Amino acid sequence: MPPPKDVVKIAIQMVGAIPQLIELQQTKPLASVLKDVCDTWSLPNAERYALQYADGRQTYITESNRRDIKNGSILRLTTSPDQEAERLYIGIQSKNVDVKTDSLKKLASLSQDVTFAQEFISRNGLKQIYSIVEEGNDAGEMLAHTLKAFTELMEHDFVSWENLSTVFIKKIVSYVNMNAVDASIQQLSLSILENMVPTSRLLFEVVKKEVTLDRLLTHLQATNAQLQLKAMALLIALLLSAADTERRDMMDHLRQKNIRQFIHKNIIHSSEPLGDEMAHYLYVLQSVSLNLCEHRMKMSMDPYSQEQRDLLQSLRQTAFESESEAPAGTFSTERRRSLCAKEFRKLGFMNNSNPAEDLRRAPPGLLALDNMVYFSRNTPNAYSRFVLENSSREDKHECPFARSSIQLTLILCEILHIGEPCSETAQAFYPMFFGQDHFFEELFCICIQLVNKTWKEMRATQEDFDKVMQVVREQITRTLSLKPTSLELFKTRVNALNYSEILKLRQTERLHQEETLAVPVLELREKLKPELLELIRQQRLLHLCEGTLFRKISSRRRQDKLWYCRLSPNHKVLHYGDVEEGVQSPPIESLPEKIPVADMKMLLVGKECPHTKEKSSGKQNKDVLELAFSIVHDVEEYCLNFIAPTRYEFCLWTDGLNVLLGKEMTSERTQTDLDVLLSMELKLRLLDLENINIPDDPPPIPKPPSNLNFCYDFSHAEQ
User: Fold this and answer.
1) What is the pLDDT at residue 557?
2) Residues 68 and 102 in one domain
3) Is-contact 60 82, C-beta < 8 A?
4) Is 680 within the bounds of a domain?
5) CB-CB neighbours of 157 under 10 Å
6) Cβ pair 93, 132 in contact under 8 A
7) What are phi and psi of 409, to 5 degrees?
8) Quick check: 313 pLDDT over 60?
9) For the chain, percent of residues with pLDDT exceeding 90
10) Domain for residue 1, yes or no?
11) Which residues of 256-285 are buried (b: 16+ CB within 10 A; e: fewer)?
């Protein structure tokens, strides 16, 4: 008979004593439980003791978290958090170097626990840590433990970062700016400054002033991957916290220092694999850089701005230079206005008498004008060829340069998500972005020539404009999905993907859909589905057995601790636990926490999850909502919360958990995988029926024969 839900069977250890096996009554006060445990071992003063997990993070057991204790958990009787906090508070003030070092090391470990942290901070323990750093007498291992303890204590948000003294901040900054400092201390110092920057405008300005971009670039060039990562994290924090003007100035400075080329060569194409965190920072850097275009994208053309009118006129003068060189007195004002209107019409403006009207739509606004001017100035031959080639075509077949440029700019803005806030977890960046200055403009130059090429291949007329731009969008998105490493490679691939190739791809995709429309094939599909769904279920469970590395996301920072979760090979227990950075696939024995599958009650996703309700509901967290899921176990109050690293992992895990719960797999990936498997299986089964029409109705069954005398009797042959 299973024990009641408010009773858990656990083991309690103590150094030098035989472990106790007890049934913990969850309704019984924790102080009474401790009294019973201490009495068994004849220990006085039970209030000086506490229970904590023996494995994993060794969290203290309190009234608030005791319900997380599972059957079979191993606890340890240890000094209570207040006693331990008092001991370490005294220990870190000791004159004995060994005692002080050991105390700081223990403090760095225990500070991860919220109960201990609260006790230590309540004793004004942070003030002692400030003193150790500000006095600057300690270095090496002792200082590293001090900074680690400070980071962990501040992580609990009991104390505001704004309370830090100027002396303390400058000391942390000095560790970043000095060369002869241990790398571990520099990493911790960079991490502290990264956490400090988003909390207030004042701290942002202090860090920005004290830690120069050039110094961060020096750390980025370090061979130490962790130091490189922390430097990138601080750089991103500064960029995200800066005002628009400051951000633009910072990006200009970074561009002058060739940061893109350095990242392209030494980080993206490094011999070491790119970690998830660095991939996210590169995505943010790309997003911040591209979003510098947002201001021009949202600004309509002002017909009264002389600067903007000059840019517009430069397009006409560059394209029709010889015609515009006629002396001013040659034509009357009316004749000159008529000539200009004609030239603007040849350029492809819809409103040739007042082309500024074409650029009043925002987006793409003035960004389209900037792109056209960049194309005309940096590739004048290609620009002139585009315009003059289309000027000589019949009116209905000419490709309108200006109209195409405006629409293409809008398409590129949508594809590259310009003007959208950075995702908190995304890692999708384009390697070629970091290999090229003026990436957006250069990409436009390639794609506007692609528009002209596709226009000719399609033999398009003005009525086909939207159709052509739709094909161009498809060419660009299909090529970008291949993640070309340079713009040259992008240019080669996008030009190879001509209109006929797009038609072939569309035809193939259409055939994949149409081949299943015949009634007999539909019936065959339905018969195959159960078998293939079972195959998908097995694949999902196998993926859960392999496990996945998840990242906890706190309300204040994008990244926090790493943890790993995997299903036992017998599919009966989920094992999970915290892991260090760089651990790929920890053995199941190293994951201390577990949830029996039998105790799982429900799967929650998106907004239903408790950890998403705690977060703000801004646009930045939309992607987190799409990746969040929780397992409800035992009773509804207890949840194991996940945020998947990718949408793919989200689909596989939610499907696998639904299989364990005996429910249908509901993710979009299930349907995609099922369609692929059905398509492959149908192709194999219908291989012999190629070019044979399958009738909608089965052929009639012939009448049975009048007699069965043609049946051979094998019994005679055996004799």
Assistant:
1) 47
2) no
3) no
4) no
5) 11
6) no
7) -60, -45
8) yes
9) 55
10) no
11) eeebbebbbeebbeeeeeeebbbbbbbbbb
